[in-house]
Fold each of these.
Amino acid sequence: MTTALNISASESGVIRTFALSLTDAEAEALADDGNPPFDPHPQQSFLGAQSLDRKYVEIFPVANLEGVGLTNYLVEGHGAQSVKVEPDRARLNALQGWVMLVFSGAFNGQSQTLQPDARLTLIGSYPQEGTDWTPSTLTAASAQPNPDAAVPDAPKRMSDARMSGMVATAVLLFLAVFVTIFVLIGG
């Protein structure tokens, strides 16, 4: 039996692992999503949740994980932090029968208090690995400014050839305008 569980609206990245004290037929019926939707769905009622997105709930027999084990399934398959799962390794791997994994996404970002059925036993809540967004000082050489980077120089002086070409173009334009004016006046 599990006491009430408080879920905060900001919770993310937590996997709650429950042992089910149900017969195979009862567990299969609870896991079955092929039935038309019920309001509330049996999984929601079983967890005592106000709302539940069933996409984030897994119900299966532990025997399906033969050769892998529940601990490795949580860590390798779902990214649970191994340091948090490790203290429960023996207990997780000793489980038989059916289990229910409930991921934070199942609560749709809503704050709620779960009142789980007496046949549901919380084994543990395991945070998933995530990106660490804490600021840190970068010390790698590649992250440091390059002291040898080229500093923009003062504007370069025009070459003599370019200057000569510009003068010649200006003189030709002046002569063309001058000749055109004389032709129009004399014309």
Note: The chain is about 30% helix and 15% strand.
Amino acid sequence: MNFWLFKSEPDKYSIEDLKNEPEHTACWDGIRNYQARNFLRDEVKIGDMVLYYHSRCEPPGVVGLAKVVKEAYPDDTAWDPKADYYDPKSKPENPTWVMVDVQWVANFPNFVSLADLKANPALEGMRVIMRGQRLSIQPVDKAHFQAVLKMGGLDPKSYL
């Protein structure tokens, strides 16, 4: 099992939006960064756990937990000229972009802000708190994942 942090803007797609989906499941589409795409395509697997991070809000931070329920497949929003993430260079016969399906697991009882993450010495080296780390899909070490769950008010043993 791998651990990830996925960023989403709460005004575009919040953890509550995911929770309210049928079966609490939705595709994670619209990734248009090659490094993030490579993580989705090559490393994100069914059963991986995801820290759900609200970004571009005040304050940003981790709000809950999701899990991957379907591995990478072509992101068809790239082929829709009306979609926000349309990419005319991506073709169905040779897709550039991929998406995965995620399922809501839990909301955190305690919101874990970016400032809280930065203040916790146990999270030293976690990508999201490092300067210049803007990727919307980031790997998370198991120890960091467990520490963030504790900060959020969840028992890590229940999610490993």
Note: The longest strand covers residues 98-113.
